[in-house]
Amino acid sequence: MKRPSIPAPPHAGGCLCGAVRYRLDARPLAVNACHCHDCKKLSGATNLLMILAMRDAFRHQGAVERYRKRADSGREVDIVRCATCGVRMWHEPLTGAHFVFIAAGTLDDSSWAVPTSHIWVEKASPGVGFEGDAVKVVGQPGDRQLLIDAFDRLYPSQP
To answer: Does position 135 have pLDDT exceeding 80, yes or no?
Structure first.
């Protein structure tokens, strides 16, 4: 599989009704698919494809609601949704306050968002395919650096 190139920032997106818009003004740190039961329920899909980024490069406007959830890993996250239409757009991990995980499906252009890593692979739904070059992790990695390293291996930074 030939991977699409990662477009230059900004990366913009928003909710279904348009009440919330966001913008990421930096290169992503990772593109990760989570196969845990929580992400399946929250997304209504077989997994949640997320863009890991630095929170200080992320901006949004519009009314949002937060729901605090303890994940299977024991980590807590604030799940952020549009206050009007309820679309889950990103989550903010309490154990990594400098990160934001953006739901790739809420990007205006998600055509480049192909997972470089998969987590909770033992909980993957039957028939889910995995890219041959992506890192596959049983459970939650102890350190998010593993996801960042997988992305950097496949998408080396330009000098």
So the answer is: yes
